[in-house]
Write the structure tokens for this entry.
Amino acid sequence: MNAVVRSSALEPTNPVAFERDLPVISNEPVNGEYRLMILSAPVELLEQCHAGQFFHLLCPQIGGETPYLRRPMSIYGFYPEKGELHFLYKVTGEGTRALSHLKTGDTLNVLGPLGRGFTIEDDWDHLVLVARGVGLATLAPLALEAKRLGRKLTAICSARSADVLMSVEYFEALGARVITVTDTDGTSSIENLEAVIEQLVALDGVDAFYTCGSNRILRLLQKIGERHDIPGEIALEQQMACGLGMCHCCVRPFRKDGGQVNLRVCREGPVFDMQEAMPW
Amino acid sequence: MNAVVRSSALEPTNPVAFERDLPVISNEPVNGEYRLMILSAPVELLEQCHAGQFFHLLCPQIGGETPYLRRPMSIYGFYPEKGELHFLYKVTGEGTRALSHLKTGDTLNVLGPLGRGFTIEDDWDHLVLVARGVGLATLAPLALEAKRLGRKLTAICSARSADVLMSVEYFEALGARVITVTDTDGTSSIENLEAVIEQLVALDGVDAFYTCGSNRILRLLQKIGERHDIPGEIALEQQMACGLGMCHCCVRPFRKDGGQVNLRVCREGPVFDMQEAMPW
Amino acid sequence: MVDLGVDVGSLKLKNPIMPASGTFSEELADVFDLDLIGAHVTKTITRGLRDGNPTPRVCEVSGSMLNSIGIPSKGVGYFIEKVVPFYQQYKTPLVVSISGNTADEFATLCSEVTVEGVDAIEVNISCPNIEEDGKAFAIRPSSTYDVMCKLRQATHLPLWAKLTPNTGETPEVARAAEEGGADALVVANTILAMAIDIRTRKPKLGNLMGGLSGPSLKPIALRMAYQCARATNIPVIGCGGISNAEDVLEFLIAGATAVQVGTATFIDPAIMPKIVTDLEALLASGGYSSVRDVIGSVIDEEQDPGVVFMEAAP
Amino acid sequence: MVDLGVDVGSLKLKNPIMPASGTFSEELADVFDLDLIGAHVTKTITRGLRDGNPTPRVCEVSGSMLNSIGIPSKGVGYFIEKVVPFYQQYKTPLVVSISGNTADEFATLCSEVTVEGVDAIEVNISCPNIEEDGKAFAIRPSSTYDVMCKLRQATHLPLWAKLTPNTGETPEVARAAEEGGADALVVANTILAMAIDIRTRKPKLGNLMGGLSGPSLKPIALRMAYQCARATNIPVIGCGGISNAEDVLEFLIAGATAVQVGTATFIDPAIMPKIVTDLEALLASGGYSSVRDVIGSVIDEEQDPGVVFMEAAP
Ligand SMILES: Cc1cc2nc3c(=O)[nH]c(=O)nc-3n(C[C@H](O)[C@H](O)[C@H](O)COP(=O)(O)OP(=O)(O)OC[C@H]3O[C@@H](n4cnc5c(N)ncnc54)[C@H](O)[C@@H]3O)c2cc1C
Ligand SMILES: Cc1cc2nc3c(=O)[nH]c(=O)nc-3n(C[C@H](O)[C@H](O)[C@H](O)COP(=O)(O)OP(=O)(O)OC[C@H]3O[C@@H](n4cnc5c(N)ncnc54)[C@H](O)[C@@H]3O)c2cc1C
Ligand SMILES: Cc1cc2nc3c(=O)[nH]c(=O)nc-3n(C[C@H](O)[C@H](O)[C@H](O)COP(=O)(O)O)c2cc1C
Ligand SMILES: Cc1cc2nc3c(=O)[nH]c(=O)nc-3n(C[C@H](O)[C@H](O)[C@H](O)COP(=O)(O)O)c2cc1C
Ligand code: FES
Ligand code: FES
């Protein structure tokens, strides 16, 4: 089963990316660093969404902030049944600061869903995701998808300290097993992470890895994946302008057919084959 | 008595122009076209103000408006006793639209008082002002000044129709005689205006004329002034950048010593000798 | 009903709105029906394969953006086999933007893309020319003239010369392009600019410098469009910072026959068809029955002609 | 305490913040103590009397402005009798900006303003030169070199050449100015631009075109400052769109030794002393003890030097 559905670029009569002003239902801090924004969205938009895809947000010019380009943001949750689209974001600059000023009842212009999401093949039974920091935002909806498909999911959540570990409850509520590792108690070291994952592989068997964001985790999973011939996917980031594949701003290099190619994070990604990805 | 007090440019140790964020007390429509904004201002600023001077307003970037340069606005009223600074403005473009979005409790950054205000010489007893449209905003505080000095004032207020005649009550409350002329009942024609003014000159004697804004009224008053040797002053407008005399954006031509000179509306004006002013 | 049709030389457009090269591609069909706009303009292609510049390739500067993509290209073969057929699905004319490192390579590509399905060739002479120590052809009138003559001989298709703002000689370059055989001028490309991250002290673009586009560029591009319309007798296609129908009208009044919309599409991907609709309404409210009536209608006669081409003294 | 002092050649400034010519005058003393800034720079003067351009002389364009003042001047006599004595009240160095229609007239004025009380001469070679069909001297390296040689012979005072962005040859012009005898480069003046009122169809400036200044100009001026710092061995004074201490730092990192603040003063007349304070805080928070340590500290070595002066391909 493939979580990705996109109309081919050769079907101009069937546009798939929506550009909409969506009302803000809520926009609250989750902890010191992250905020959760819940938008009210039409069901036909939500039904197009897949885990790993993103929206390109037109951050408002409020609170003295004047962001110009759109900002890419992963889908943190999408709920056609209750008409909600969720984003989990970290305030890092002008655009996300502007987002943080949005209040219930304001609207936010979104463009999406965009890009290629995560793949869950039919015979992948035990999925393991390794997430750190805001990477959780991108990986969280994978748990939703796994539950819908009746797969087993183990989420290894890495963070600086226990109090910034987010989404643990979220994963647990979806029936996932959660393993937390933190810098403060030293469990997030690459060595320990390797041991934890090798144990998972040995005891339960792992059919696919998913990760995003961290270079060190990517290298580790590439090594383990190669060692045991386990496929994997990684969600990557890059500065974007159009978000639609037109401008070629957002490329990253990938290993392909013995050579190196540039692929667009917004179009061929943001989710890529883990072995093809190149550590940076 | 001279209503103008300015530090000479040679006194760098005694700055006279204030740059302040002032709280908005109220900002309400006066009629379909004009709005009155009342700011709370410190007494030391209000004590520097004189009729005919202006402030350079940093219109906020709100409501989707993004004005950049400051906007000049005449002092409509200044009340050191109640700590209030008043502006009467017409919404014409981006900056004034932005002003109209200000709500009680917001602040507005003002720079001023700037420029040279109206003169009321000691022996000028009967003052006559002729105002049209938003020009009233500029001339209104002259009535205040006249009352403080115990002079007689006649205000001839011209407007398109009776319902946009503003400030009539204001002038009357200050003990001024008010003559209204409107386009709708045909009384605002230059011919009728000339008759009205000539009658004032003949019956009461007139010591000085004050006006602003209208080319046709300027020509008329220049003619009458010259005919009877009555001095006068006119407040003029021009696009501005700095408002302080630095950029030379705001010049207008004036007749001086047989020749023609460019003077800065923001510095040598906005109030000028009526005979030196050149119709445009 | 306002007639929005314009003629760019022999090419008839149903409306004057088209994309700027590099800010448009097949993928925009996901967002709107590509037959709503006046023309399709491709990203600049080169003969051979090119990777493009290092990342980051884009950054934001107050209310505008810088880019340094570097013309990644899949080469002329891919273009003819894949891209042309895609656009042949549409009734809208296809304009292919091309570029080359040397005048001869450029001309070869120009004849290679002279194929069925291509309606005009936009020649991006704003890109570095290795024969002129890395300066763009369109920086100097002489190099503009030379390359245009070679390109003119390479194709019978309408030839649009895309000029650069990185010159102090816009009217002279425009005339050189006309004399060299250009059928229209696209005015203008991005202006060379830079931004530095003060925390990392690194340039915000991988290539150090890049091109400024978006609203900041508009008054510069408008000035160039006006200069070019005055300096030549060929149609001018305005480009630079156009974000709405009012901006389009400003360029048309200045003398542009049509316009290209670039960066604005990144902010609102459906902006082009929206502008088509808004432009019609704007013209209707101004009492115009044809968009052609506003072209070049700027009221500048009161001005001393001497000032027009003079460098405005600050 | 961060040491904010910089040396522009032989001239020592207590801090790197000074006004841009034409956006500063005696009147600013109404707003703050003029001894708070690093230098005083006058509006450009010409030898004779000049009226300046028709009004409107200013208009707003998205987040920036256009001006076409046209250098009204009361002449050199007024300057020496009135302006110099005013600034002699202050301890801050006085820089006089001058200009001329021909190289000889320019040089004569240069020697006339070489008087007690003037500490440096900024030569505005971005203004039209009637000997080069109205092109500014600083559009071409050759005319830059020629006029600088004449100016150099006319004064022993430090000579700052103010460059224009209206050229495709910034590094070459910078080197020509250095070779012609400039002690520093001021980078840059406004870029030629235009705006049209779509209701009246008239240009928004009385002179049709004018110079773009303010935030939109910043990435262009920053690129030029970087190019000039790389291309020459004389100090560069950055100018264009600087509105806060972060902008100043960006120019210093790019290689500027000092900066000029222009349009931002129109928005906030006390911005210069505020920037001095903020810059000190910003440097302190970055762990710097002297502003001189950040000058030219841009990290660009990782880049292929080939790209640096190449026209960035869009
Ligand atoms: C596909 C994708 C999904 C993402 N999902 C999330 C998410 O779910 N939650 C979250 O908090 N963040 C996410 N990010 C990162 C997010 O886009 C940036 O944090 C955001 O753009 C920062 O904008 P700013 O204006 O606040 O910061 P600034 O630093 O002021 O941004 C300046 C410019 O750089 C760009 N930029 C800055 N950081 C990044 C980045 N990491 N990736 C791409 N562009 C960047 C901005 O878009 C903007 O154009 C995602 C990025 C991508 C590419
Ligand atoms: C000394 C002086 C006193 C004034 N007093 C008043 C007053 O009390 N009440 C009032 O309603 N208006 C007054 N005006 C006019 C007021 O400044 C303009 O209406 C206002 O600047 C328009 O700005 P906007 O952004 O709304 O309009 P826009 O048309 O969008 O403005 C565009 C630009 O043109 C300038 N501009 C437009 N109209 C004028 C004008 N008439 N004079 C100078 N610049 C202009 C603006 O400042 C701005 O820079 C005065 C003008 C001057 C010079
Ligand atoms: C991301 C990006 C890529 C571009 N690529 C090209 C290109 O390949 N060829 C070209 O001639 N112009 C290119 N341009 C310039 C645009 O076509 C256009 O001239 C410029 O962006 C100004 O228009 P705008 O302000 O509407 O974007 C590019 C611009 C951007 C922003
Ligand atoms: C109103 C105005 C007048 C100017 N007059 C001059 C001048 O007389 N001489 C000169 O060299 N530059 C002049 N300039 C250009 C400025 O000195 C400066 O180079 C330019 O505005 C860019 O800086 P900014 O963006 O900080 O304003 C003027 C600029 C403005 C806005
Ligand atoms: S952001 Fe434009 S191609 Fe990816
Ligand atoms: S507005 Fe600058 S001198 Fe008057």
User: Anything to note?
Assistant: Chain C has one domain: 6-293.
